[in-house]
Design brief:
The protein has 357 residues and is mainly α. It has ten helices and no strands. The chain has one domain.
Length: 357
């Protein structure tokens, strides 16, 4: 986060957003105004980076990786903001902490579902590697038996990919639970607390939006998508509202057009598989035209390599975000243990109950 200029409160291009959360007579230090302004401007810049250049960018692994990377950066910023506000955990309202702990459990569950789906796709990819090994024309022309084995493996791959991951089924429910906690909580007699709640609102909106896109991409359904309207009192509101309308519109269009797969790299592999599959499935000993086979195998190899690379990079980003949420949760509980053993015991019990549920 960039720091404000010394002694000069920054100007807000859309009006001072602090008016909506502070009484007119509230005396805010230039530092507090600058911290919030810096945080929201940084969030706006991240959302700008997510604007797709064209519809084909949406739900590509590179775009999804960027979305998760930027979300992790926002979490790093909120951590810095809390430290710079010098707002100790002991001053947090109990409701804030309960909501934070509850939401963190929900986010961990969502991350586990995403990781499970990425792992499932990666496991299915082993079948493609087997096919490419069997049909490696650079070594020798495949025998009739090898063609039939490759054909069987492609059939198994298509069956595995068409299955739905049960761990994704609860994502929509969890996301709607996160939406219920989006409202700005009322904070009495604490300028720092109100700034923190305003910033936390921005984090929650970005989190819910990104997770809804991932859930839609993995499930092949538009059901998980959320429609959030952010007031223009926030510096990042216009950018977010436009981005959400754009991306959600693309995904809904893909679903309505009957696209079976929303993930771009996975869709490319499916196209290659479906072109190759009928070419090698003949029970007769009629030889397959070598050039045609070679081109089909080459296309499958290229698309499968892009899929595998994208899976690896996106899996690392999801794992990194999971770690950020988990360590943030542990840090809060650790600080509560130091500040107030009674409060810590109460919240620890609540957290354990959430995990059990």
């Amino acid at each position: 986060m960039s720091r404000p200029h010394d002694g000069h409160p920054p100007a807000f291009p859309f009006g001072n957003p602090l008016r909506m959360i502070f009484p007119r007579r509230s005396n805010l230090s230039p530092k507090i105004v600058g911290l919030l302004n810096s945080f929201e401007e940084a969030q706006a810049e991240r959302l700008k980076k997510l604007k797709p250049k064209d519809q084909g960018d949406v739900l590509s692994f590179s775009w999804m990786r960027l979305a998760m990377e930027l979300l992790s950066e926002t979490y790093a910023d909120i951590k810095v903001l809390i430290a710079e506000l010098q707002f100790p955990v002991a001053d947090w309202d109990e409701k804030w902490m309960d909501i934070y702990l509850d939401n963190s459990v929900k986010l961990l569950d969502i991350c586990l579902a995403f990781s499970s789906e990425l792992s499932r796709i990666n496991q299915a990819h082993l079948l493609l590697q087997c096919v490419l090994h069997l049909l490696d024309i650079s070594k020798a022309s495949p025998s009739h038996e090898q063609l039939l084995r490759a054909h069987s493996s492609l059939g198994d791959w298509m069956k595995q990919i068409s299955l739905r991951n049960p761990k994704l089924e609860n994502c929509s429910t969890i996301l709607h639970g996160l939406i219920e906690s989006l409202h700005l909580n009322k904070v009495k007699n604490s300028a720092k607390g109100k700034v923190l709640m305003r910033a936390m609102y921005g984090v929650k909106v970005q989190t819910t939006f990104v997770c809804s896109l991932f859930a839609a991409a993995f499930s092949g359904s538009s059901k998980p998508l959320v429609n959030l309207h952010v007031s223009d009192k926030f510096l990042w509101a216009e950018i977010f509202n436009d981005l959400q309308a754009n991306v959600n519109g693309v995904i809904r269009s893909l679903v309505s057009n009957g696209s079976p797969t929303l993930l771009k790299e996975l869709e490319a592999v499916e196209v290659s598989v479906k072109r190759l599959y009928p070419k090698i499935g003949s029970e007769s000993n009629v030889p397959v035209e070598e050039e045609t086979l070679q081109n089909s195998v080459l296309n499958l190899r290229k698309s499968s390599e892009r899929l595998l690379q994208g899976l690896d990079l996106l899996s690392k980003e999801v794992e990194g975000f999971f770690h950020i949420v988990l360590t943030g949760r542990d840090a809060l509980l650790g600080n509560l243990r130091i500040d107030d053993s009674d409060s810590y015991s109460r919240l620890k019990n609540n957290a354990e109950e959430q995990v059990v549920r």
